[in-house]
Amino acid sequence: MKGLSRRRALLVVIGSLLPLVGGAAVHAQETRVTVGQTFIAESLDPTEGSAGWALTSHGVAETLFTVDRHGEIVPRLAESIEPRDDGSWVLTLRADRRFSDGTPVTAAEVAAALTRVTDLNPAARASAGRLHATALSDHELLITSERPTPVMASVLAEWPLAIARLTERGPVFTGPFAVAEFEPGIRLLLVPNPYFPDAVRRPAVDLRRIADGQALALGLKAGEFDLAFNLPSEALGLLRADPALIVKSFPVGYQYMMWLNTRGEPLADVRVRRALALAIDRDELVKAIRAGRPSRSAYADYFAFAGEASPPHDPAAAARLLDEAGWRVGPDGRRARDGAPLTLSLWAYPQRPDLVTMQPVLKAQLAALGIAVETRLTEEPTSTARAAAFDLMLWAQHTAPAGDPAFFLRLFLSPDAANNFAGIDEPRLSKVLDRLGEAGEPAARVALAKEAQAVIAETVPVVFLVTPEWHVGLSRRLAGYEPWGSDYYVIREDLTVTR
Amino acid sequence: MFRAVVAGVGLAAFLLAAFLLLRIMPGDPAELRLQRQDLGGAQLRVEMQQRLGTDQALAEQLSVWIKGLLRGDLGRSFASDRPLAAELTRRLPWSFAVGMGGLALGAMIGIVLGFASAARGGTAALAGRAFAVAGQILPSFGVAVVLLWLLAGHWQLVRPLTGPPAERLLLPVLVVAFFAVGGFARVVTRTLQQVEQAPFFTAALTKGLGRSQALRRHGGGHAMLAVLAVLTPQLGWAIGGTAVVELVFGLPGLSVFVVEGLRNRDYPLLQAFLLIAGLWILLARGFVSMLVAWLDPRPRPFE
What's the ipTM? Predict the structure, then answer.
């Protein structure tokens, strides 16, 4: 990144790559920044797996709507959307947008992209099924969905629905950056999309995958990266002591939670579940992971629909409930009923180190109530959770990735949900979910989401623990970078070099 | 010729066994792929199994794989859908360079240290023992992070994460070498100590050679044979055994890819890897056998 010869070499390399992006970024690249993060897109085709999410996060792809830094759904490629009486929607596109090869973003292109991605990618069908879109004019299209939805803007903000145009050289997108060089899952060289406003202000971005957080932190310290995304909290002291670096922490939309397997004893008894929820001191959890905020909500605080989905810390009330349920403290200080000790397995997974850090803290808190906890790890958390092979399972989840509360509730708490880890079948919750499926007004959806959280607080299939904070390390060149939006929007149009 | 046929049959039997064992492992590749996207349900699972071909009978899956191999097609990854031949070609050189580079460097340092230890003892003997013990007790992850911290983070001498390939390979090779040195040094020392007990060594000394000179001249061949004996089983390192260093240094190697493949139950990837690893081990052992025959210091019959 330093020195004239390297800079010249860079200009030569990027110059030779320009034809690959259809003449993109002629004015590019007096500057380049190097970004290290733990993931890089595996494909440039949003019909494949989670490529749409990765490409949006890399600043390459865009959706029609998006979630802004305040958690609000706002138009992106779209200008507006209006429902029709027959359940279909008329979407109006912004007239000034182009793909990175210079082609205008027209209704026909967008219709083809939506239809293709929902046909080919099951993740794109999760909320409303297949979408069928037809162009009404250059900038208006009619969208119908396989399953009716009252919140089409939120559906169109979901990451699989990235808008791509297929060309002979592969898909092209509309985001602030265009792909110049791509090694799937390893490296991505981006240049500013010359057809995105203010392209000249943006640097080229060399995006590298570094899977290990410690290595990422040391790479930042060594001056190899201008931006290191999602640093481990134990490395922050070292980095903050370096005057050449800036570390910024930000709350994310992910929530740390603990699922309770309600299928059998002792957790089939709601009193035991409530006791566990009351026993947890979230401040101690935050101290242990050294970042984040205690949370009793299903959603991060910045969402309007964040409510109270778990009871507050009250160990005395927890002890009373356990006594009521027949789990009494014996002479050894442990609770038992009919001679059987109250022992629970508590699972976590190493892919989320914070959850592993929280295990002994939770174990100690429950032990103080006389509950024995066996901590266990799994490399395959979804398999373990879906197989119901746990009593308590720590989990990290973005609960509103498209800015709508229904996503999490539908995916985890409806009786037939693929991720109904708790095995809950609560008619009151199902009714609220049904009403959420029909309500279109934002205020009504907020009220229903809070109602659902109140039912969760009462029935306790899950206990919410912490809204984590993530950490981004920056060189002085990117001092103006402000992280937000979890890992959904890492490279954005406001990524500029401070001079 | 006969040995080549036996080796070929052995490799085929190994691959067949691997094909079956992979499918006995718990975990459905289709289900795991859906889970990575937060998807589930019987219908989607069936669709994914059809797409991956895991809904077919084992014999049919085996037939598809063998026909592909005969066409030179290793298939596509279950996890990414990308053709494996290109992916493996891209990744193999990184792992090979780290594994073979580390072993070669480790062998070179180990041989020098082993000779010095046998000839003079003292610091060299202590260093040989220290490497051997450190190689046993230190975690490779920890050594890799410490090297990264010292040489890149603290002194900023190299750019192991974003530099040119030679810079990126330096620290991983050093880590592999670090863990190999002790074994080579110990075996060289031990072999030379045995040589010192042999009558031909006493004869060499009585002819007026110094101890070091006699060790080099009459113990060198024996030591090389011992080094090859230690090296042969470690050749697997070259491909598939360097996942930890690849992970720490962010190298796009084969080893870390195979570990991910194991987690995803990516049968085509694992089968392709086992095929490459099997061929490599056969080739390497054949080469080592020839080298051993050439280096053997004992007089050959009718010579």
Answer: 0.83
